[in-house]
Amino acid sequence: MYDRKNKEPLLEVKNLEVTFGTRQRKFTAVNDVSFTIYKGETFGLVGESGSGKTTIGRSIIRINPTSGGEILYKGQKISGKISKQLDHDLTRQIQMIFQDPMASLNERAKVDYIVSEGLYNCGRHLSEAQRKEEVEKALTDVGLLPEFASRFPHEFSGGQRQRIGIARALIMKPEFVIADEPISALDVSIRAQVLNLLSELQEKRGLTYLFIAHDLSVVRFISDRVAVIRKGALVELAETEKLFAHPLHPYTRALLSAIPLPDPAAEKDKKLIVYDPNMHDYTMDKPAWCEVEPEHYVLANQAELAEYKIILEHR
Fold first, then answer.
1. Which end of the chain is more exposed for a tag (fewer CB within 10 A), N or C?
2. d(C-alpha 186, C-alpha 98), whole Å
């Protein structure tokens, strides 16, 4: 489990840059992003659509190539060209739960094959009986009946499909799981079930999560630390409760102000903060990624940093 005192780095992202397109039409999706995920923790990555959250997750699992910086897993570089053996090991150790439970499952394959596909591809020499046993255990672990293995994905609800996707990831016995908005396509009634399932599995198996989302209330429920991303750059990173209690960056404050409140009267009276990027004057004093207090990082220039320190002193 995640130990706040004796933190052991599992994944390190250093000055990551991801670009798409050619020289003439180059688009930088992720720009100079750095963070560390510790063993056993749930690290939340939040931002609006198109901010680069999923691109970071897909770069870690080596779907998207990186154009700058490096990604280290257990101290070993896993971005760029790596050996076949390391690639094989990473496929087992790092798994991803995809956003859309409809599109991420092969409609023409039975659940039995979908869940055990990783076992076939990773060359684990199991007998047919052993493989079926592994599939049954994976389905049971995510709250599905073993007999579901003989059915097709279209026979299931969205929540059940997402559980199949989780079973497909867990059958590989990974250490690190990238959960890319795993509940955004689900009904509200099902979301809590899937979140609780992820928490239970983390407890049982000692998993580490990168939890990607745009819903801050969900991130607060499940994450130990949260990083806020805007247009491919991190703007703030802190322990969850610290970030929610004392947000510093104007963009973080704007995101937090948009969280719906359960009390209708409070919701009616609350003031939405609208973020305006022109409020920053970076013409002379350029912003940098700074540690404003222990374990609390923010993107700011020297003038803003001084202002944030005064806010923290008077909290």
1. C
2. 12
**Would you mind telling me the total number of residues written for the chain in this entry?**
315
Average pLDDT, the chain: 89
pLDDT in tens, 57-103: 999 999 999 999 999 999 999 998 999 889 888 988 999 998 887 88
d(CA 79, CA 314): 42
Buried b (16+ CB within 10 A) or exposed e, 278-289: eebeeeeeebeb
Rounded to whole angstroms, how far apart are CA atoms 194 and 187? 11
**C-alpha distances in angstroms, 232 versus 15, 47, 54, 263, 280?**
12, 9, 10, 34, 17
Residue 299 φ/ψ, nearest 5 degrees? -90, 115
- Mind spelling out the 3-state secondary structure of 151-214? CCHHHCCHHHHHHHHHHHHHCCCCCEEEEECCCCCCCHHHHHHHHHHHHHHHHHHCCEEEEEEC
Instruction: Dump the DSSP string for 21-86.
Output: S-STT-EEEEEEEEEEEETT-EEEEE-STTSSHHHHHHHHTTSSPPSEEEEEETTEE-SSS--HHH
Q: Cβ(197)–Cβ(205) under 8 Å?
A: no
What per-residue confidence (pLDDT) applies to 4?
67
Q: In whole angstroms, what is the distance from residue 14 CA to residue 71 CA?
A: 6
Please tell me the distance from the alpha carbon of residue 6 to that of residue 141, in angstroms, as a whole number.
29
* pLDDT tens track for 226-263: 999 999 999 999 999 999 999 999 999 999 988 888 88
158, 186 contact by CB (below 8 A):
yes
Tens of pLDDT, residue by residue over 148-199, are: 999 999 999 888 898 899 899 989 999 999 999 888 877 777 888 888 888 9
**What are the DSSP calls for 92-131, one per residue?**
HHEEEE-S-TTTTS-TTS-HHHHHHHHHHHTT----HHHH
Question: Is the CB of residue 186 less than 8 Å from the CB of residue 195?
Answer: no
Q: How far apart are CA 299 and CA 286, in angstroms?
A: 10
